[in-house]
Automatic annotation (TrEMBL):
Protein known as: Four helix bundle protein
Superkingdom, taxonomy of origin: Bacteria
SUPFAM superfamilies xref list: IVS-encoded protein-like
Stored InterPro entries: 23S_rRNA-intervening_sequence, 23S_rRNA_IVS_sf
Gene3D superfamilies tied to this protein: 23S rRNA-intervening sequence
Organism: candidate division WOR-3 bacterium
Length: 162
């Protein structure tokens, strides 16, 4: 397969999403950073950055498991917000001398990458015709079968009202 060809495979688990994998890597980098001696001076900032980083991948996972694109998109927006929160907190940490500027840039770039991937996934889901597993019809049920069931239910309700 050449690099211009995109292979689409069905994503069955949130762990299969590249954005989840990148967010997980970011959280692990944040945990490694906040274990350093410099952050020992400010455990509340270390805890806050960790929580924000964990929130990114947690919201990707929770949204995916909801089973509808609409809910997934809502959780992706929350994840995107948490990604911005990590960047802001990294800036404060850099300003306080808890991490070198080069490390700050590297982690901020990682946040921007994840945020961009979240935006791309949001745009994709908003334009998707498939609304999510929650709305999937049983494969054996056709549109005609569904219409027949709805008409039968309406007739049953009319009989109760008469």
């Amino acid at each position: 397969m050449n690099s211009s060809t995109t292979e689409h495979k069905k994503v069955r688990y949130f762990e299969d999403l590249v954005v989840y994998q990148k967010a997980r890597a970011l959280a692990n980098e944040v945990y490694a950073l906040t274990r350093s001696a410099a952050f020992a001076k400010d455990p509340s900032l270390a805890d806050q950055i960790r929580r924000a980083a964990v929130s990114v991948l947690s919201n990707v996972a929770e949204g995916f498991e909801r089973g509808s694109n609409t809910e997934f998109v809502q959780f992706l927006y929350i994840a995107k917000g948490s990604c911005g929160e990590v960047r802001a907190q990294l800036s404060i940490a850099c300003d306080q001398g808890y991490l070198p500027e080069a490390e700050h840039r590297k982690l901020s770039d990682h946040c921007r990458l994840v945020s961009g991937m979240l935006s791309g996934l949001i745009d994709y889901l908003k334009g998707a015709r498939y609304r999510g597993d929650k709305f999937r019809q049983p494969e054996s049920e056709t549109v005609e079968d569904r219409i027949r069931k709805l008409r039968a239910a309406q007739l049953a309700n009319q009989g109760k009202n008469e």
